[in-house]
Structures are given as C-alpha cells and as structure tokens.
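Weekly modeling sync, notes
Attendees: AB, CL, MP (scribe)

Item 1: holo prediction request
CL wants a bound-state model with iron/sulfur cluster before deciding which constructs to order. AB pointed out that an apo prediction alone won't tell us much about the pocket. Agreed to run with the ligand included and paste results into these notes for async review.

Input as submitted:
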Amino acid sequence: MQANRTKPGKASSGGTKARRAHDGRMGAAALTPRALLRELRRTLADRGVDADAVLHRRGQLEAVRARARGRAFPREAYVRAMILAWLSARRPWTRIGEELEALARVFRDYDPRKLRRADPGALAERVLTLRCGNRGIHLQLAALPENLRRLQALEREWGSLDAFVTSDEPEAIARAWSRPGGAEKLEQVGPSVAREMLRFVGVEAAKPASLVRRMIGPERLGLVEDAGPRAAAAAVERLAAAAKREVTEVDTLLWMYCAPDQADVCGSDPRCDACRLAKHCRVGAA
Ligand code: SF4
C-alpha cells in the first residue's frame, strides 16, 4: 500500500505548457521537486506556520511512517480516523487540532465497546460545545452505531481492519467505504472522507483539496494541466516520489499553503508578494 511512496520519480510533465507560457524554462516544473518543497516550507515559515508542528499534530505523516515500520493499527485507530475525518471535512483543522485530547475524552478513547452504549445526540452536543461541530454533526454521529457494526464485520471477515485496508489500492478501499449500496459502505462517508480516514491510519492516499488543485493547476503553478481530482492526485504523487518524500507530507504542505486557517498564501485572493514560488507561477510572474 505504500506503492506511491516508492514509485520511481520523475519531474512532472504537466508543466510543459506552463514553461511555454514563459520563456521555455520557467514554471514550477522548472524547479526541482526538492527546491519547490523547500521554497514552499520557507514561505510557510515566513507566514508563521510551523509546518512540522502541524504535521505532528495531525499525526498522519507519523502514522504513514509507523505503518511503514510495521506498526499495527487497532480498531480504536479506525474509529478515531472516521470521527476526525468527519469533523475536519466540514470545519477548519485548527480548532479540531486544538481539541484532540478533549475529543478523545468525549469519544471514550474511541473504544467501540464503550461507544456502542453512547447516545449519539449527546456526543454531538458535546462536540458542539467544544466548537468542533458542524451542521451535519447529528447526522454523522447518528451513523456511528451502524458504522461501528460495519467496521466490526469487516474486522471479522478480514481478521483485522489493517488486513482489509491493505488488501487493495487506497483508491479501491476508499471506494468500498463510500460507494452507495456497496457491501462495505460506511454511512456518512464519501470518497473524500474515506481517503482522509485512510490517512489517519497511515495509508497514503493523495487527496488534494480544491484549493491545492487550483494552486498546482494550469492557472497558477502549472504542475498539471488538468486540475481535476485524479490528475491533481497523480501530480502530488509524482512530486512526492521525485522529491523522495511521503505523499501525505507533500499533500499536507500544499494544503497548509492554501488553507485560510493555515498560511493562507494561495487562496482565492492569493498573496503572491509573500510567495517564494511567484516567479515560477503564471499569476505571480504576470
Ligand atoms: S504566486 Fe500567487 S498564485 Fe502563484 S502559487 Fe504563489 S500565491 Fe499562488
């Protein structure tokens, strides 16, 4: 399942038109992947974002590395992954990251045996009190008992949830969890939440947010000429492989670059004057 991390690297080919748009040598693809990530990290630091601290708090990169070392993830880790993926899908990460310990108490250390007896409505109210909720929180947590049963069924069938999530490519597992009517479908889980769940249990699954897709797409850095989810995910995988970094790290750094609650550099109203990639970007170099 770590195939993306070891995929033979090559510089992105998606920047060809971006280079043509300038003088034949410009565009982010003209930067080496490592230089691009270095400039990205330097800009994050300029903006006061401690990238390593954010990566550590999210825990996904450490989970990827732990899985690569052979660590097994217990069922509690999967329940935690589902709940954090639900919460962070509809609310900026900062607040959730601040309340990880309190959330663990609310969700009884994500122990499915204890959670089965919990009242979903009361859990939702406690999440709202922590200001980590969203408009869909009651629906999400109403699905919790059924999803606990489905995860348990998967565990019985495969011997462990780790065996299930490593039985196929991450995209296929995300589809299995999110496909309506599928035998392994989890309620209130779509493709994006499913991929985020996988990342919380250390399975690499490129999931560039729409903000990131715009940043690396043809209008800006030109790392990819099609900013659709699949092409953008492939571009992030290529960039990570070429820089010899984990996909999760690269994807998260790009997200930090764009997210309004993080560095907020490359958002709807980009701060190109603060961006160390500007001379390699169609907007910044214009
Ligand atoms: S130069 Fe502007 S548009 Fe281009 S990547 Fe930087 S912030 Fe985004």
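Recorded for review: The chain is about 55% helix and 0% strand.
Action items: CL to compare against the apo run; MP to circulate these notes.
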